[in-house]
């Protein structure tokens, strides 16, 4: 029960929302802590105030679901809020804390803990925000500005979260491996550690992450390898981890099955060939026989006796038959019941003859049985094969029209044949039923896939007139074994007229030309003139070819004239080609008109019309003559090399021949090409003429010289020294200037002269101007001749080392050789050390350094001179050879001469410090075997001592043990100690006196191989030590089996594995026994066979030679179905029929004989629970009978539902074309009687699929 003052305070606080803060900010901080699931932890609330103005507070702290405040745990800090009280209660998900004072006293200014309270943590790990909502009030009840800061409450623990809780491996073949993955996540707040997994599913293993961090995802990899068949596995796998919450598991589902499959192979070939079809088997169980059938399509024929056994079936026999229904049945069997060898590969093969055209044909095994020794059908699956036929396809014309053929021409013609397939087409032979033609192409002719070839046919007896024959092609195209081709054509003699119009002297003429191979004695033709023009006999002129002939030209109607040329003596025209006559045409509008020559008849001497076919109509076109030609220029002035293109305008614009011919009167001056392009070649004059027809036009061309317009020099200034030269180059522009000769002059030849080639030579100091002139233009170059300065000074040596009193003479070389002043001045930087005279002779005066300088003009060179002390002349050692062992030392003494040498310091060195070292005092230490030279050096001289380091021999070998007792497979490592310590070669060689008993490696590791004794010897140099080794026997301590109990179905087998410990037991042989051989038998390899059923089962025991044993209890269950068969596998039925199918499940003692029936398309046929099929529509449908005991076996029957014959043949008078299913016609206009005479099968009649029984 709250007091009045508490209720008043809460009421005031509830009114603060939305009020504006009036004072400085006050901060409330909530701090959480870490805890374990289901534990308790403390939450702290602190208050920071800038002034003592907070009288009351309401603090709402959100608490996550599952976390509850501990009742009575709120503790107000009286030091921070003296005289205040506190209440706390849950309001929804908020923990509401109210701090108040009945006198409305304020909380002192400052910063510190206000209160604490405890919470009970839930079992769900997480990190939870504790940011509060705060309301503060002052002494007068006014709202105060406030800020809130929250920490986090952490429930620390890992938590396992599975991405899925069930994995279905589906059907898995035994002795194979299936892999699945399960995602896992640590949804907790600390690292999740896995401790393996637990499963009762045999053959299931898992790869599990070791750890997952906070929020991290991982993967569990499941591997399932079943070893026995089963109707279904329903187990679990439980990951072990330190995660909180309930223990989670993954449900494991699978159906392990045994694989025994029959595979019909694929084959392909070309029609008329034979192909081999392979039959293979993949089996996990021993198979002693096989029986299957294949319905052969009409396009495939079985080759009798072609079945061939594979290596796997070499011990078995095989038989094959083909029934009237074209079903090939193959039976593989063995009288000894011996199983097929191996588990995968070819069983047998057979050959098929390919008869049809291109197509894909399926070979589906039916009524398949893969039997074991007990005669049980072990088939798990069958796979169809296929045969692909590739046949050639002849594509060519059946009607070959050769057309008109000249008797004088070739009489051989090409007939194209095309192969529209992917295999070669063979034209075996070409036959002509008559003697008109023959084939010239060699046979057989092979046409490449999708290729084309030509057959050459020659007409044997060409005669004038039309001809016709037949050509028969014999091929390997199944649809065109013999193709008949009709050949037609016409032989003629080439006798033909042609006509061409021309104009001459203002008149129009048409020239008639005759080309003939046969003698022509007369001709007749009609001349059709357009309106406005005409002709008559007076305008006709016969040519020389018609000499002795007469001609008449008569007007037939307004436009038509008839011309006849003949010979009373029946004399042929002379020659075989050329002008026969010319005919004049009159009329003002004749230009450009066409005259038609029709009904042309050329007569032989016996009066036969032998005009070339289709040449009895010709046209003669009258030309439009040129009336004028004008040029774009009448006169041209060009310089040599220039070009200009003249344009000729020919009138009228529609003139028939506007070809222009261009000529030059003087091609040495100007040339012109066929396009009117004029090119100036040389000075002079020429006339260019353009001619078209009988008119022409001219242009006068004058070629004039090209003057020089400018001269430029390669340089306009030059600075030379006396004797130097420079060649100037003058460039004259334009490039085609006629005269580009340049004249060179100098304004002052005493200073510089220039030759005719522009080469300038400096003669004396001074200035001159060089001028190059061409025609009226020129250019200049200002030349200055200057003196030659000194460029460098070099000395014969740049350093010198002298002793006091010694001298050296330096030589100075001044460059260039032609320098004007080569005087050299010598000086010394320190004459107290070294002096130099005017000749460069340097004299050493005292120890020290000086620089000698040689100067000439602005150039100089120096030589650094050093005056040095007295050098060492010789060094000798107290001994020149030494022989030491590793570690020994000897001290050498060096003597330096002369006695007064300035520096007698000796430096010691070794040629090979790996062999011997030497210190600064000459002490030599032997380091390793070998040779080294010790050198003592003083100044430029030295002395040597040859040091040889010799080896230290081994004196003794001892072993860490001299006897050892081992069991077979055990090892012990011996340690050899070689003395003395500094022996040079301490290599130890290990040997065994009997390696069949014990071996030893290079490290002294001894391995026991067999019972017995052996001596192990360690040898170093000439000394050795031995250890006597005895190998003793190891007895069996335990026997364990991989299963304590198993379940088998009757007839199943299973192999138990016995593990004998220790691993190195001398005799690990175990003996297998069964407690009841009427239930189970076991062989010497631990293979169990379920042979009988008994409620109590039986026990298999594995016993070691010393009596130690282990057992496994075996329960035998009733068997699953091993096969299901239908009494029919393919049925033809008409709509409305009902068919009863019967299914048989083997073995008869199978635990579940229930059958499930289903139809692949119930719109065609339905099936009842008892197997009664009702046909309701036309089509193909598969009826499947399946076992329901988990063995997943099925058998099928294909029903071909067709329209009955009565639908297409309602009476005896109906006639229809009958086709096979490939669309090839079988019988045209077939009656019902014709149809019934066909062999059984499916046909297409009147657009319907009909079955002939």
Please characterize this protein's 3D structure:
The structure is a single chain. The protein is mainly beta. 2% of the residues lie in helices and 54% in strands. The strands form 34 sheets. Strands 1, 3, 5, 6, 9 and 13 form a six-stranded mixed sheet that branches. The longest helix is centred in the N-terminal third of the chain and has 11 residues, at 4-14. The two termini are 102 Å apart. The model is unreliable at 1-24 (pLDDT under 50).
Summarize this, please?
This protein has 1253 residues and is mostly beta strands. It is 2% helix and 54% strand.
Keywords:
6-stranded mixed sheet; mainly beta; single chain; 121 strands; disordered N terminus; 54% strand; 1253 residues
Strand proportion, as a percent range, falls in over 45%
Can you tell me the overall shape?
extended
Tell me the total number of β-strands. 121
Please identify the structural class as seen in this structure.
mainly beta
Arithmetic mean pLDDT: 89
| Poorly predicted residue ranges | 1-24
Query: Helical amount among residues, as a percent range?
Result: under 10%
CA(first)-CA(last) distance = 102 Å
């Amino acid at each position: 029960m709250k007091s009045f003052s508490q209720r008043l305070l809460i009421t005031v606080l509830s009114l603060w929302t939305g009020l504006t803060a009036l004072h400085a900010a006050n901060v409330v901080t909530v701090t959480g802590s870490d805890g374990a699931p289901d534990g308790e932890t403390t939450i702290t609330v602190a208050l920071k105030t800038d002034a003592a103005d907070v009288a009351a507070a309401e603090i709402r702290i959100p608490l996550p679901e599952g976390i509850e405040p501990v009742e009575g745990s709120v503790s107000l800090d009286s030091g921070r809020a003296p005289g205040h009280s506190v209440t706390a209660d849950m309001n929804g998900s908020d923990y509401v804390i109210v701090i108040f004072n009945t006198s409305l006293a304020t909380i002192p200014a400052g910063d510190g803990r206000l209160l604490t309270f405890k919470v009970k943590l839930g079992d769900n790990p997480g990190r939870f925000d504790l940011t509060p909502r705060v309301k503060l009030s002052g002494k007068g009840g006014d709202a105060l500005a406030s800020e809130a800061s929250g920490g986090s409450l952490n429930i620390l623990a890992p938590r396992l979260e599975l991405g899925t809780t069930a994995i279905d491996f589906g059907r898995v073949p035994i002795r194979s491996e299936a892999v699945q993955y399960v995602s896992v996540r640590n949804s907790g707040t600390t690292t999740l550690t896995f401790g393996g997994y637990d499963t009762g599913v045999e053959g299931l293993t898992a790869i599990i992450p070791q750890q997952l961090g906070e929020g991290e995802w991982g993967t569990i990899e499941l591997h399932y390898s079943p070893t026995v068949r089963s109707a279904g596995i329903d187990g679990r796998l439980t990951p072990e981890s330190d995660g909180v919450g309930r223990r989670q598991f993954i449900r494991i589902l699978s159906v392990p099955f045994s694989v025994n499959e029959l595979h019909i192979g694929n084959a392909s070939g070309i029609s008329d060939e034979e192909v081999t079809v392979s039959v293979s088997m993949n089996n996990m169980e021993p198979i002693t026989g096989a029986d299957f059938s294949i319905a052969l399509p009409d396009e495939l024929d079985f080759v009798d006796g072609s079945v061939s056994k594979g290596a796997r079936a070499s011990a078995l026999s095989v038989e094959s038959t083909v029934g009237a229904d074209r079903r090939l049945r193959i039976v593989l069997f063995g009288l000894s019941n011996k199983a097929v060898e191996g588990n995968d590969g070819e069983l047998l093969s057979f050959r098929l003859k390919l008869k049809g055209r291109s197509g894909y044909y399926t070979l589906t095994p039916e009524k398949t049985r893969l039997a074991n020794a007990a005669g049980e059908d072990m088939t798990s699956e069958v796979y169809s094969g296929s045969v692909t036929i590739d046949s050639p396809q002849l594509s060519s014309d059946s009607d070959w029209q050769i057309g008109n053929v000249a008797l004088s021409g070739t009489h051989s013609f090409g007939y194209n044949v095309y192969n529209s397939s992917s295999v070669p087409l063979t034209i075996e032979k070409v036959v002509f039923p008559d003697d008109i033609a023959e084939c010239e192409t060699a046979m057989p002719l092979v046409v490449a896939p999708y290729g084309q070839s030509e057959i050459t046919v020659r007409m044997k007896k060409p005669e004038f007139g039309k001809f016709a024959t037949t050509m028969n092609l014999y091929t390997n195209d199944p649809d065109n074994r013999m193709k008949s081709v009709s050949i037609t054509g016409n032989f003629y003699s080439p006798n033909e007229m042609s006509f061409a119009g021309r104009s001459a002297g203002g008149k129009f003429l048409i020239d008639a030309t005759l080309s003939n191979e046969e003698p022509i004695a007369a001709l007749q033709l009609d001349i059709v003139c357009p309106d406005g023009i005409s002709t008559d006999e007076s305008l006709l002129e016969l040519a020389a070819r018609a000499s002795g002939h007469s001609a008449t030209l008569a007007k037939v109607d307004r436009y038509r004239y008839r011309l006849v040329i003949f010979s009373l003596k029946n004399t042929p025209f002379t020659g075989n080609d050329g002008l026969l006559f010319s005919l004049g045409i009159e009329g003002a509008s004749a230009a450009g008109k066409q005259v038609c020559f029709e009904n042309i008849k050329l007569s032989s001497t016996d009066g036969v019309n032998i005009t070339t076919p289709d040449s009895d109509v010709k046209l003669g076109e009258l030309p439009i003559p040129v009336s004028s030609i004008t040029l774009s220029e009448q006169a041209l002035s060009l310089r040599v090399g220039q070009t200009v293109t003249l344009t000729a305008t020919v009138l009228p614009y529609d003139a028939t021949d506007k070809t222009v011919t261009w000529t030059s009167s003087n091609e040495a001056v100007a040339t012109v090409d066929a396009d009117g392009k004029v090119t100036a070649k040389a000075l002079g004059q020429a006339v260019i003429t353009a001619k078209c027809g009988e008119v022409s036009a001219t242009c006068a061309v004058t070629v004039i010289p090209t003057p020089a317009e400018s001269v430029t020099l390669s340089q306009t200034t030059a600075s030379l020294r006396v004797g130097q030269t420079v060649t100037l180059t003058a460039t004259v522009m334009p490039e085609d200037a006629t005269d580009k000769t340049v004249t060179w002059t100098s304004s002052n030849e005493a200073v510089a002269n220039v030759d005719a080639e522009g080469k300038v030579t400096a003669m004396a100091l001074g200035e001159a101007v060089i001028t190059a002139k061409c025609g009226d233009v020129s250019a200049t170059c200002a030349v200055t001749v200057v003196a030659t300065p000194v460029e460098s000074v070099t000395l014969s040596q740049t350093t010198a080392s002298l002793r006091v009193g010694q001298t050296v003479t330096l030589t100075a070389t001044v460059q260039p050789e032609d320098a004007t002043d080569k005087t050299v001045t010598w000086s010394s930087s320190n004459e107290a050390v070294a002096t130099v005279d005017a000749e460069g002779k340097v004299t050493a005066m005292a120890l020290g350094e000086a620089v000698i300088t040689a100067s000439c003009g602005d150039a100089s060179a120096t030589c650094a001179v050093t005056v040095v002390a007295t050098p060492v002349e010789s060094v000798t050692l107290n001994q020149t050879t030494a022989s030491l062992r590793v570690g020994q030392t000897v001290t050498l003494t060096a003597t330096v001469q002369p006695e007064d040498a300035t520096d007698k310091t000796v430096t010691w060195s070794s040629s090979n410090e790996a062999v011997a070292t030497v210190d600064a005092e000459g002490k030599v230490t032997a380091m390793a075997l070998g040779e080294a030279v010790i050198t003592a050096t003083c100044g430029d001289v030295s002395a040597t001592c040859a040091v040889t380091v010799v080896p230290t021999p081994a004196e003794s070998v001892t072993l860490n043990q001299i006897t050892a007792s081992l069991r077979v497979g055990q090892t012990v490592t011996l340690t050899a100690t070689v003395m003395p310590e500094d022996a040079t070669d301490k290599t130890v060689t290990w040997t065994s006196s009997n390696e069949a008993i014990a071996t030893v490696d290079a490290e002294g590791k001894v391995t026991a191989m067999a019972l017995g004794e052996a001596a192990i010897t360690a040898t170093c140099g000439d000394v050795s030590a031995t250890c006597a080794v005895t190998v003793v026997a190891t007895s069996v301590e335990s026997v364990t089996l991989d299963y304590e109990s198993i379940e088998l179905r009757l007839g199943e087998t299973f192999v138990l594995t016995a593990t004998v410990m220790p691993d190195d037991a001398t005799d690990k042989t175990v003996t297998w026994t069964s407690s009841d051989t009427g239930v189970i038998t076991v062989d010497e390899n631990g293979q169990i066979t379920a042979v009988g059923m008994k409620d109590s089962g039986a026990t298999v025991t594995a016993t070691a030679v010393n009596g130690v044993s282990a057992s496994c209890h075996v329960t035998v269950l009733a068997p699953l179905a091993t096969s299901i068969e239908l009494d029919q596998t393919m049925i033809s039925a008409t709509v409305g029929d009902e068919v009863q199918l019967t299914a048989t499940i083997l073995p008869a003692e199978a635990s579940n004989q229930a059958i499930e029936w289903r139809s692949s398309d119930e719109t065609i046929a339905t099936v009842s629970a008892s197997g009664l099929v009702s046909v309701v529509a036309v089509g193909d449908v598969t009826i499947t009978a399946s076992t329901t005991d988990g063995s997943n076996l099925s058998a099928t029957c294909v029903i071909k539902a067709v329209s009955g014959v009565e639908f297409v043949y309602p009476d005896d008078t109906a006639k229809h074309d009958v086709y096979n299913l490939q669309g090839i016609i079988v019988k045209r206009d077939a009656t019902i009687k014709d149809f019934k005479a066909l062999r059984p099968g499916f046909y297409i009649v009147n657009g319907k699929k009909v079955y002939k029984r």
